[in-house]
Amino acid sequence: MIAAAVAVPLFALSSGGSRATQLDGTLGGNAVGAVSASTGHIFAAIPLSASPDAIAAGAGSIWAAMSDRGAVSRIDPATNTVQQTIPTPGGPSALTVGGGFVWVADTLAGTVSRIDPRTNGGQVVGKPIRVGNAPSGLAYGLGAVWVANSVDRTVIRIDPVTGTPGPPISVEGGADGVAAGDGSVWVIGQSYGVLSRIDPAARTVAGTTSVNGPVAVAVGRDAVWVASGADGTVSKIDPSSGRLEGALPVAKEPSGVAVAADGHVWVANSGSATLTELDPATGHVIRAVPTGAPPSGVALDGETAYVAVQVPPSAHRGGTLTLAVANPPGLYAQPIPKSLDPASGYSAWELLTLTNDGLLGYSQAGSAETYKVVPDLATGLPTVSDGGLTYTFQLRKGIRYSTGGVVQPADIRRGIERALLQSGNEFPKLSPYLAVIEGGRGCVTGEHCDLTRGIATSPGSSTVTFHLSKPDPDFLLKLALPEYDPVPASTPLHARLPLPATGPYKIAGWRRKGVVVLVRNPRFRVWSAAAQPDGYPDRIVERFRYTGRSAIHAVERGTADITANGFDQTWTPALAASLQTRYSSRLYPAPQLTIGGLWLNTRLAPFNDVRARQAFNLAVDRNRLAQINGGGVACQYLPPNVNGYSYYCPYNGPNLTKARRLVAQSGTKGQPITIWMYDIPPGHRNAAYLLPVLQSIGYKARVEYVPHDGRPTWRPDRQAGIQGWGGDYPSASTILLGFLCSSITTDPKTNLNFAGLCDRHLDAQVARAVTLETTNPAAAAGAWHSADRMLTDEAPWLPMKVFLSTDFVARRVGNYRYCWLSGGSGMTGACLDQLWVR
Questions:
Q1: Residue % of the chain over a pLDDT of 70
Q2: 148 vs 121, more confident
Q3: Which of 229, 304, 390, 686 could join 215 in a cystine, given CB atoms 3.0 to 4.6 angstroms apart?
């Protein structure tokens, strides 16, 4: 049925051109296939160096983005060869072509870059354009580039001539993908099940259409087409009225949609590994082309459909993946797990996300998708009623634990009860985030733990209903944390470990000396590829007791497969620079929800004067601080990829002249300052840089070192010290609430506000943002950004770095995906089960 030969040889060209392979009727993965639009035959296969995440046609070429490799490949459609592989900033996850450029989104960095196809065969030009949080969709049309920012739920218009981004357009229905045409901009919101139509002149949403689980959108002749991954359909929408004219069945899990010049609609279906052609008039399937490997997208060029395909799960299944964790005794804070119980707090999330599941989970699709809450044990997102007080879920039926028992609704309640009973405000315990459930406060205090009213179930029913004591706009973000995964209803509080698993792996071995082993769970089956895909390795081994250098050597030798720099920078700056020079394609940095810095005690001189705090912030070189600390540049208090983040830095320095003027105005010149550092190499490097800075603006500075034993550097009588802040889930509220007056105590074990800042105006702004999360979520992002600016202007800290999860992988490792829950552990940023080792 399908042509089996490639007529045109592929020559090795600049930047790693690729050579054709013989077709056996399908594609092998990590490739782009050329499909004849007239016959449906795959007549060429173009191998790529990594898995393609997006594909586009234009400027006389086909362009494939590979976020795994931080590159875009340019394919010549005349010869079906890779002409050029172009390095791009970060991980390219979406692209479009128009206005003389190829536009590439780096989702995690929140930027869009331009490739000029006329320069050296294709080259990134200019600086990355800041657009918003998690740009996940790009489109060119109506004389502009349109960017969908999924975290912000906004759309940005970029002028293609100047590269200038316009102000954000709020899209309440979500902004995960975008298309432009027929006089409007069309935006899909996957979690909300909405297609929004933006009037580009008025810069407002002019109408919405409900669509089930939209994943891709394209504009054709007199119709807008939306692919729905949830039900295997493509919806046809009338662009003039927004009316849904029909949902046309195609195949399992559509992943991309494009419209040809003749109006025919082509749909890539990742679940069934097919490419479907639809007649737009009748909605009938003209043909279904087996691709052999799951397609991630499709683009049209004349009479050819180009389909980007990833490697099928079966191709790299097997082997043992070894994670080397650097935690030299007495130096670094990467503790060997004391418990592998989900309810125990922060312990081993990089592993427990692979063994256990909740009603909801965070997507394992990588890139910005990792911050999205998706249904896991639940069949879908909940029905919300009673003004945000009631959440109703349907539990999937027939899911079994590794012990053979079936997951029951009562297990959901028991998992949350155990988590609340073990919660607390001291690390490694997790804060009692779900105490908002009726009865939850009794579990936290230990007086009377009974959630039967707060989590209602009934025999023979798969319904699970949550009743909250007050609305909580972050409830679903919290519920998706591993701590709240269900366990059999009979599980005692202090249970024998390991607990039964629902995920693709179960715990087979655990030695307190520092080895954890996961093996396949034979009872696992895939019910949600987004929440819990099948894993590639047969075994996953986590080994501790390495130094940073010995872990690197283990990966170089192939005795380990992956290691990370860790929260405490186990790689020296010289070692990190050497790795960047020798192995840049095997390094994977990603920003975390955590920022490190120096708290400045606002209740003690000289930092009780805002001018002294601002002077210190002005005097430092932030790029130098980031380099010293192995992180990203930091200046403000919200990290990237949370609602409300937008780059802001009023301290462009070093500006010693202005800093000295502020010190003089504050009357604090000549005063002594002691900063408190941990007695580890990064602490000494930071002190060596910061002390001369303070001295250069007129202070008498010295340093004191304390053991890195898990205790904070803060004490009420200390002026400044090293620490950090961040979020346990991707929301501005969990980060900024730690800077309020109510977060101050005098106990180092419970105090969250190390700087001691109490600003009632900031408190009011945060309260306003929290209220807007419930009443007007789209406006809440602006309110959070205003709070972030207020806090940055107050300068209660010296932000020094955005924590990066930087992984170094062995030569044999492929298919790197970033999972923020793994990165939050400090052990690795990878979705470990999605790595290939064979």
A1: 96
A2: 148
A3: 229
Q: Are 736 and 742 in contact (CB under 8 A)?
A: no
Query: CA angle, corner 170, sides to 169 and 176, nearest 5?
Result: 95
Residue 786 has pLDDT above 70, yes or no: yes
* Confidence at residue 764, expressed as pLDDT on a 0 to 100 scale: 97
Q: Which residues pair with 821 in a beta bridge?
A: none
Distance between CA atoms of 503 and 515, rounded to whole angstroms? 20
DSSP for 112-125, written as a single string: EEEEETTSTTSEEE
In 3D space, the residue among 225, 229, 276 whose CA is nearest the CA of residue 250 turns out to be 276
pLDDT recorded at residue 410: 97
Q: Give the helix/strand (H/E) hosting 615.
A: helix 610-619
Which pair of structure tokens corresponds to residue 424?
A: 């607390």
Give Cα separations from 413 to 371, 420, 455, 484, 638 (angstroms): 25, 11, 6, 9, 33
Q: Are 40 and 54 in contact (CB under 8 A)?
A: no
Q: Which of 407, 405, 410 is nearest to 396 (CA)?
A: 407
Tokens describing residue 124: 């990134």
Strand bridging mode 320-326 / 539-546: parallel
Tokens (6 digits) for 343: 């309810």
Q: What share of the chain has pLDDT > 90, as a percent?
A: 80
Q: Residue 769: which H helix or E strand, with range?
A: helix 760-775
Q: What's the full length of the chain, in residues?
A: 838
Average pLDDT of the residues in 66-95? 91
| Distance of alpha carbon 321 from alpha carbon 837, whole angstroms | 6
- For residue 43, the surrounding DSSP H or E stretch is strand 42-47
